[in-house]
Amino acid sequence: MDDDQEKESETLLQSGDEFAGYTIIRQLGRGGMGEVYLARHPRLPRSVALKVLRPVHHQDREFRRRFAREADLAASLDHRGIVAVYDRGEQSGLLWMSMQYVDGPDAARLLREHGALAPAVVAGLIRDVAAALDYAHRHHVIHRDVKPANILVRSAPTGPEALIADFGIAVPTVDATRITLIDSLVGSVEYAAPERLTDSGVDSRADQYSLGCTAFQLLTGELPFYRPTLAESVIAHLSAPMPSVCALVPGLDPSVDRVLNRALSKNREDRYPTCREFADDLLRAVGVGPQTSRRAPSRPVGPAQPAPAAPRTPAAPPTPPQSTHVPGPVGHRMTVIDASLGEIPADERPAPPPDSAGPVVLRSAIIGMAAILLLLTIIVLVT
Predict the structure, then answer these.
(1) What is the 3-state secondary structure (H, E, C) of 362-381?
(2) Domain residue ranges in the chain
(3) Which DSSP category does 261 fall into?
(4) Which of 80, 181, 197, 357 has the greatest number of CB atoms lying within 10 Å of its CB?
């Protein structure tokens, strides 16, 4: 039996199987908790993504609880940037959940296949996820596992669109202060906010930190705080300065570093109030204003040569990070995915404020004249 046949035989379900009323078309992916299949709805003319929990987890109360919580929380949210959950149940001893099928890869796959993405594409994807996260936060849900593998990307006439999936370890805001440290470590430590690693309670700004780590990786192909061991990764999140994105991606405006440094602040009080404010600043930093990020039809997502940038005065080199940056498992490959957001002018940043030198000079002249008049008055009175 070859490797492909062996892999196929290990799947829970096969193409053509009937399961919980759905007809299995093919497997879409597999993870630690279960497998996901493309399936045909039994009554409606549409396909769904069917997630099935592995049998080994069926008797595990914690996995069953997380699986049910994911369905319940995701089903309570109705936003175009959140993968919708339609139904859940149990069939032949297996827990299952039917979800919206997104015809496109996740961002982790894009990184594996193409390396770092074009800055304009990254900013657009981060904007989509930020809007979805802010919506979830307004409805008192914290995702807690924002990462490229949970961001699905599909093509659209106006450019690639991102949706956030997998609310398996999400929590209602009311429960956020009661999360234990062990529960906080469930998920991906590579994207975990410092407060999640110190059992100090979390709020919506923990998702913003994870989104910032995701943006860094999509821009550079590397994790910002990757270390060989779990302990070293935790220490890096708690104390290591963020490496310079501009040092890894030549040509980026230095403001990109400033934006990511704020979103990845160790102190959550120093981060942006909302994910959307972070995303808007990132859009501006890469030269795509929030209102112009999807101005023209574009090509599907895929590798291509970036358009040549217009000449500009070189910026001062960024200050190198104080700690050595260890590259993550995804190599620093600068083959980019073309900015599928249309042609972007080289300099589309807001115009600088008007010159205020005139009012300042006038004000100084008035003060000077008043001082002279006061001095003359004193001289007259004395004489």
Answers:
(1) HHHHHHHHHHHHHHHHHHHH
(2) 13-100, 107-285
(3) H
(4) 197
Amino acid letter, 292: T
E-strand ranges in the chain read 18-19, 22-30, 34-40, 47-53, 85-91, 94-100, 141-142, 151-154, 161-164, 171-172
**Assigned token pair, 2:** 């070859």
Buried b (16+ CB within 10 A) or exposed e, 348-357: eeeeeeeeee
What sign does the dihedral 175-193-211-276 (CA atoms) show? Answer: positive
pLDDT of residue 53: 85
160, 121 in Cβ contact below 8 A? yes
Specify which residues 244 forms β-bridges with. Answer: none
| H or E element in which residue 99 lies | strand 94-100
Q: How confident is the model at residue 176 (pLDDT cuts 50, 70, 90)?
A: very low
The CATH label, of 3.40.50.300, 3.30.200.20, 3.40.1180.10, 3.40.50.1370, for the domain at 13-100 is: 3.30.200.20
Structure tokens given for 85? 């959950």
The listed range with the strongest mean pLDDT (56-65, 235-244, 302-311) is 235-244
**First CA to last CA across the chain, in angstroms?**
116
- What separation in angstroms does the CA of 31 have from each of 11, 28, 54? 12, 11, 9
Res. 99 pLDDT band, cuts 50 70 90? very high
CA distance 112 to 157: 25
Q: Indicate the CATH number for domain 107-285.
A: 1.10.510.10
Strand partners of residue 152: 106, 163
With CA atoms as reference, report the closest residue to 118 among 331, 242, 254, 288. Answer: 288
Residue with tokens 């399961």: 19
DSSP string covering 8-40? HHTSSS-TT-EETTEEEEEEEEE-SSEEEEEEE
Q: Is 266 marked as binding a ligand?
A: no
Residues belonging to the active site:
145
Tokens found for residue 209: 């930190």
